[in-house]
Structure formats: structure tokens, C-alpha cells
Design brief:
6% helix; 4-stranded antiparallel β-sheet; mainly beta; 2 helices; 205 residues
């Protein structure tokens, strides 16, 4: 199921102090009662979802859903409960690091619950290093399937002979209809197929 919503980022917080060491910077978004018409909170199944921020006309990936405030309780004992809360005052919250129930003062302005996302920007160098990793590009592989619909998965033609210099692949002439594709690091297209000496010779580009 696909869900979406809108919220205003309240600020940047130290995840290590909230959830334990090694978390790093998080973006916090409060669940306000007077928020926008599409005010949202996170629920079960939303972990690892994306947080986008609009920068001018462009939507940019800013965070990955990580955690929410809670659980909550009406006393200092018992298992408590999970909830999206507009105002935590008068309830008890758990300390995620040391445990136990801490009372939230009943007086004062509303104290909304919030959700937290892992910031993308501090990890951008690592992300780019993975995306741009130097992977040795070897010769392509020929794959085939008896069906083009995807009902039968494509599998490597292990006896196919690849001549990457000539951009050809030679494989034994099949005894039934087969659908072929070329698998490689770079996108390749089969340009022609011909029968030669009892084999199929495919030209790719």
C-alpha cells in the first residue's frame, strides 16, 4: 500500500542523544494539531520510506524514515502503547536509551509527538562512492527464455561464445522458439540475428 503526507521539518536533532550512539544527525518533523491539511506521521511499515523536500521546483531526497516518538503510557507501569499524538502532556513517555517511564508535565503549550528521518546529506559522499564504484566491465552474457512475458525467467546461455571485439555472440541453433537478451554493465541491444553453420550469430551494440 502506498501512503503519503506532508509535514514541516521542525529541525535537525542529534540522534545519538535520542536513540543511542552511531545514529548521527536526524531530521525531526512534529505532528502538530494545527498543521497543514495533509499533516502526517509515520506508522507501521513506513520505516525506510523516503522524505522529500522541495527545493524551488525540484523535489530532493532529504531523509530516510528512521523512528517515531513513543511508546506512551497513562501511568509509570505497564507496557504502554504506540500512537500518533498531537499533545503528549499528561502522558508518560519512555526513555529509549535507559528505559522506564518519564511523566510529561500536564501544563504548558502542546508538546506534539514527532517522527525522525536519517539525513541524506551527511552520507552523500559514501552514497556517491557506491554509485560511482569502478566495476570492471567484462564481456556481456547472453540470456534466453522460452517466453517474452517474464513468466519464465531468463537464464544465461552458458555455451554461448562472445566476441566482444566483433560485437557478436554465437550460440547453438535452438530446437524451439527462444527469446534472447544481452546482460552487461552498460545497456546493450541486439541489432541482428543470422543463422551461420548451424548456429545463431547475434550482433549487439
Amino acid at each position: 500500500m502506498i501512503r503519503w503526507g506532508e509535514n514541516a521539518v521542525s529541525g535537525r536533532v542529534d540522534g545519538d542523544s535520542l536513540f543511542g550512539s552511531g545514529i548521527g544527525d536526524l531530521l525531526q518533523a512534529a505532528f502538530n494539531a494545527n498543521g497543514g491539511s495533509n499533516e502526517c506521521h509515520l506508522s507501521f511499515g513506513d520505516s525506510s520510506g523516503a522524505l522529500f523536500i522541495k527545493d524551488g521546483p525540484v523535489w530532493k531526497l532529504a531523509g530516510i524514515n528512521y523512528a517515531v516518538d513513543g511508546p506512551y503510557n497513562t501511568s509509570n507501569t505497564g507496557p504502554g502503547f504506540e500512537a500518533a499524538i498531537f499533545n503528549e502532556r499528561g502522558l508518560y513517555t519512555t526513555n529509549s536509551i535507559v528505559g522506564g517511564w518519564d511523566p510529561v508535565p500536564a501544563l504548558g503549550p502542546d508538546q506534539p509527538g514527532a517522527f525522525y528521518t536519517t539525513r541524506i546529506s551527511p552520507h552523500s559522499s559514501w552514497i556517491n562512492s557506491v554509485i560511482n564504484a569502478n566495476v570492471a566491465a567484462g564481456p556481456p552474457s547472453l540470456q534466453s527464455s522460452p517466453s517474452a512475458s517474464g513468466e519464465v525467467p531468463y537464464a544465461d546461455e552458458v555455451n554461448a561464445i562472445v566476441d566482444d571485439a566483433a560485437k557478436t555472440i554465437t550460440v547453438a541453433l535452438p530446437g524451439e522458439s527462444r527469446f534472447y537478451r544481452v546482460r552487461a554493465c552498460d545497456p546493450l541491444t541486439i541489432k541482428s540475428i543470422r543463422v551461420q553453420n548451424g548456429n545463431l550469430v547475434l550482433t549487439y551494440q
